[in-house]
# Entry
Amino acid sequence: MISDSPILRVRDYTKHFELYEQGKRIPSAQSVDLDVFVGRLTALTGATGAGKSTVLKGIYRTYLPTAGRLLYRDRHGREIDLACADEHRVLALRRTEIGFVTQFLRCLPRQATENVVAQPLIQRGVDWHDALDKARELLTAMDLPERLWGISPATFSGGEKQRVNLARGLIAKPRLLLLDEPTASLDPATAERVIELLTTLKREGVGMLAVFHQPYLVERLAEHLVELPSPSWNERPLEEIA
Amino acid sequence: MDKVLSVEALSKRYGKGCQHCFALTGPAFDTNICPECGSVVAAHEVSFDLHQGEILGIMGESGSGKSTAVKCLYFDQIPTGGRAVFNDQGESFSLFELNAAQQRRLASRCFGMVYQNPHLGLNFDISAGGNIAERLLMARVDNYADIRRRATSLLERTEVMSERMDELPRNFSGGMQQRVQIAKALAINPPLLLLDEVTTGLDLSVQAAILDLILEIQQQSRTSMIVVTHDLGVIRLLADRTLVMKHGRVVETGLTDQILEDPQHAYTQRLVASAL
Amino acid sequence: MSAGMQFGFLDEYAKREIRRASLKAVAIPGYQVPYSSREMPMGRGFGTGGLQLTLSLIGPGEMLKVIDQGSDDSVNAVNLRAFIEMTCPGIETTTSTVEAELIQSRHRIPERPLREDQFLVLQVPYPDPLVIVESSEEKRKMLHGEADYSRLLVKLYEDIVKFNEITISHRYPTRIADHYVIDPSPIPRWDVPKLDQSPALVLLGAGREKKIYAVPPYTKAEPIAFEDVPFRVEDFYDQKGQRRACARCGCRNSFLDEYVDSTTGELVYRCSDSDWCDEQLLIGDAPEAAHG
# Structure
């Protein structure tokens, strides 16, 4: 069955940050292996500093890996190593296949919330009106008051921003969805709606890799668990470069 | 296929030059002035690609060569070396091999340029609408009502009140002048738009509005753009990919979020650290 | 010819140069050919460019007409004619457009359509129409070369914006043979259509600016304009919408000059072209339209 072959295989992923100014190397993730499957959620767990976000950002190519392979199987069945894929290839995948929902929302100060949310669909070439309809649908599902739709999310509270961010991340139904504490500042009721939404998306075949701060989310949503070792393997996280 | 522009080893040197110019300048020497002959190496072997609908950021401090690169592409300056190939509707143009007349024709048909200084992009002696008319007339639009209509809609799009379209841009605020300049650059719907420090020196709120406008244009028209700036905030908001320049050299290039969050070069790290 | 006096005042070398420049001007319609304008025994700006053309082109036995603002009797025309007669023994002069073989003129083109066997020499103060939009001659040459007249059209655009019409009354920029735009000298708009497909060769000479250019016979001369705001000639309508007539000959289809009657203080209109006016008086009736 197709869902049994992973859409993402991370092998021996390692990331250190080289700080040239201070002459230091900071280890962040060490030899991570994991798989993400169609329609299932893989949860990354581990202590603070274990490099959970580093793995997500590595896959999204916000971080350049130090070592390892990040093998993504695209919708045509081709395997692409995100660690070294061409930048334009990565941008195209971000536009069409790989979504990332973080705790932070970055957007222009003048754009209306509904436009911010609709943007990923518009970028894919979806008709403006259809994209807006879909955005409103999601904002309703997220329980964001309608009076906020027409104004910029720049002034929103943390929880409101997070809802916008989620709506934006989910709207285009990426094949692979990366989630970095997506419910961190949500009230329990809204978090519950997010769980429902993610469950629906999974049913529709979206493969997910998530970092959750609350264990109950892992229990309810994750099919697979990957625990990253604590950074204790390196007592001194700062290490002089030779 | 969807590559709009491909620049290879673009170089620009001011001065007589000597054999040491390239070996003794650059980030490692912390200068772009050759200690032997005093020539300025404004840009040395700058290479990049620009794809259809992409916004490429070129970031650097003054003297890094970032403006030199786009000025060469807009034929404001003549490079001392390198190649640039521009593709438009199945046609390919090797920019620096064209003669001056061909360059002007291509620029007036395919390129839009917005300068930091509106004096360079606008004629202050003719009205805002007249400035746009000039661009349309160059493209051989010769119907007055048509020109009027297009100028009005361009100014509306860039949020210049259309009742002010017959005023001289010298009477406008800096932000408004920049909007008129953008409207003028967009008049012929160019497949390539070059933006050189367009928000520098403007009030923050005006900056945000202009950046918003640029992004909106990109989303609506899929115009390919090169955005030159020293401002990390501008890069963060606009650029898909970014080129970091220092002393005429490209020190690093990558996806914009990667450049900002995981810079690979000591200089970029310092730049990012000082901005955040 | 008295010893020491060259026919046509100019030495043969100078005349040859001007003829060569004229030939080049004919070969490249509308292109401003530079030439080494000679010192003439009158101030530059008094028609020295036209005069040098006339002196280089005329020969004994040929019939010359000199007009200034349509009139053969104005001081300028009289003086130029006298000078040419003095320096070109054997030529003949006339005030009649029909009789003339070479017509030197300032500010007007005769109303009577010219023929193939006639030359028109126009005196030009400012040869380059681009001078109002570009101060650098080098850049102007580039714009001419590339036929980029967008900035000139912007002037027209601004005119329409401000005044709802094109207000240029004289020196209307005119595109020759689909390329070069010329300053047709300070002729009124009324005269510009006469350049188009003119059977007569039109040579334009600027003495101070040292340029000669031409509208060769049967060449397209098109005043620049917008597709939807076409070029128009002066209409000479009165308040009632009636075409004004010349107070002297009654002609209703000539270019009219406006005078204030010194006794009544009223505005009076008369043909600007004095020869035309005389002719109409002789005929008695208003003739066939000179325009359309």
Remarks:
- Residues 29 and 247 of chain B are 9 Å apart (CA to CA).
